[in-house]
């Protein structure tokens, strides 16, 4: 399932970095990936490239698990990249702008007048998530049809039925619907299916060998399935790729993603002016197709992605000419924390490898009573209901699924797959939610 809102993976501004490292501790990076794999914390591929050359590439876990048949992942494994697709879509749009075929101010009504506020929504607002178009992936009904094929007409009708979230340009709200529509705009102008425009304008142009518009997973092509960890890795349902389109339907490898980022920033795909617009951040860390990712004093641009059980991070550091791509097809440890470890090791920052052998406290049902209740926050419009089922503590945010929590220490619980940490202070009737670099105080109602 497409993620509703993707938080910058590299919001680690508190670090003080050294100058760019000429070498890094590859053995330590190997140890990080090995411990993640051996403890069933992650499966996937990592590639680091500098100055156009691969300096590190490794895969862990499996691209396919079918009973006793296990196909190990390799750096050539193909993964669904989710919302990193949006960078490709934005690139296609800016190519058309460079060719004078549309502008950032072109109204959406030029192509799809039937959509809400189409006369007042611009291409630029779609690119920067300021259109107000309601994102269909936020609806509860999405889970009832995301595995079924949809035509463009059906998708447009569905998007058209959604009530706008706000007036065009009024504010930022991450919208998968906006980028699905941008993909359709590409098709209208080029008179080609999105897959063909992608092939001609990006893939063939820069020589990508393992990137394409996805379909039903084909293990014969070394396409990976995605998994979630229960008592073992369990296969996740597959989104039908007719639905995410220009918002999330591309399949690629970590090596190809790095090549794409390098080509984009080398001026091989769009003009210098267009690349600058892609990097111009308005709010929430987003520009027009690119996100700003901060690692201490160093700045990267890229995007994150999530679809089914896949998680992706692509970042490019222009000053260092460094590209880092990580794609996971199974994670029970936060992707953000994996990237923190990777970058800390690469930039020779102090970093302690995670200790997954440390024993979590054993709690009885009676130990969980002080945490149970509904918590509200004045900083975000969200309530979290904490409940106990036997000796397991659970948390459920408004409109979201129930998450089983793992005890870390006294009064501290986590849900590692989403990078969530809950720190309780029962005597004060408070709970601190930590996720994605942010901390939010909640009070027991």
TrEMBL record:
The keyword Signal applies. Keywords: Signal. Residues 1-21 form the signal peptide. Residues 44-333 form the Beta-lactamase-related domain. It holds the Pfam family Beta-lactamase. This is CubicO group peptidase, beta-lactamase class C family. The lineage of its organism: Bacteria, Pseudomonadati, Bacteroidota, Cytophagia, Cytophagales.
